[in-house]
Amino acid sequence: MSAIAPAAASAGAVQPPGGVAQLGWFTGPGGLLTGLGRATLGRRPKVSPTAAAMVGAAGRVVTPIPRGGYGEVVFCVSGRPLKYAARARTPLDSGARVRVSSALSPSAIEVAHLGPAADGCP
After folding, report:
1. Is 104 helix (H, G, I), strand (E, B) or coil?
2. What is the DSSP letter of 32?
3. Which of 9, 59, 99, 104 gives 108 a disulfide partner, CB atoms 3.0 to 4.6 angstroms apart?
């Protein structure tokens, strides 16, 4: 059996086999996939806040901060952990609670010591 329909053969058009032409509701201009594409394009990915936006936030040291060097501080932002490179005026051990005092770059901060973490949360 030929894949060309008799009416379409006289007009020179070729019909795809298996009724694929009837899937317009799925892939056509107003179809399901087009609507899903529009819905996902409208969403913006979650963007991590810059270091400048973190000034005043409380966090916890996860990588010790040595004198004159950098360590890492973790914050809880919208329910997810977020780490920044951090430096402090005094050395700080892991677990110390800190507050961001200034932004050094888009990904680095300066922190001030708040005291030991009582429950492990910032």
Report:
1. strand
2. H
3. 104
